[in-house]
UniProtKB/TrEMBL annotation:
This is Demethylmenaquinone methyltransferase. It is an enzyme of class 2 (transferase). It comes from Leifsonia poae. It catalyses: a 2-demethylmenaquinol + S-adenosyl-L-methionine = a menaquinol + S-adenosyl-L-homocysteine + H(+). PROSITE patterns: SAM_MT_UBIE (PS51608), UBIE_2 (PS01184). It comes from the Bacteria. Its EC number is 2.1.1.163. Coiled coil: none annotated.
Amino acid sequence: MSKADLSKQPEQVAAMFDEVSTHYDRTNTVLSMGNASLWRMATTRAVAPRAGEIVLDVAAGTGTSSASLAKDGARVVAADFSAGMIEVGRARQAGNPFVEFVQADATALPFGDDEFDAVTISFGLRNIVDPQKAIAEFYRVTKPGGRVVICEFSRPPLAVIRSGYFAYLRYGMPVLVKLASSNPVAYEYLMDSIEAWPSQPVLAGWLRAAGFEKVAYRNLTAGIVALHRGFKPLTAASAPSSVPTEGE
């Protein structure tokens, strides 16, 4: 059984998600205690896809989020690094003419500049070896005036909730994983990566440094998850060549 580590080497991460692809959605529902569908609906509302628009859904996995984005007639390109996830997604979305699957590396997207009306990623930025480089790629492929929406696990601002949440990650989640997942070892990485992920203001800073404007975020489920959004300027220039790291 595969488990990636916090070096987030792409081959390790892809192998890990290949192994959990078949039962991935079911496991997410169990581990999120039913909140996964609520987070997906909030993300779809934030993206606000319209008929005729082209949306890039990065780290789309099996396409559950992509189907939600496409329900009103937007065309959604579901990109993922894991061949296993794409295989399951194509089978599940075979009858959906608005969703197209593409295997892609988020740090080197195989798309042209200014191609998408919106770019979104849910619970995937944390798994990318260089998330700031991925954000720069999101900026590049977004049309001027377009938007980016990131839904990611985050840090609850209240200490009492944060302590309880991290206790759940360390002690409660492993029990549920053994019951729900085909690869419980892989979900040890999930716990490690959530605890190591930076705070909401740091991620907002990464978006601003990449060139996005009107950047804002709001907490979901007391800050266990945060929803970030930014817009590419109508008179967009090239993305800055450097971005700040946490603590700068």
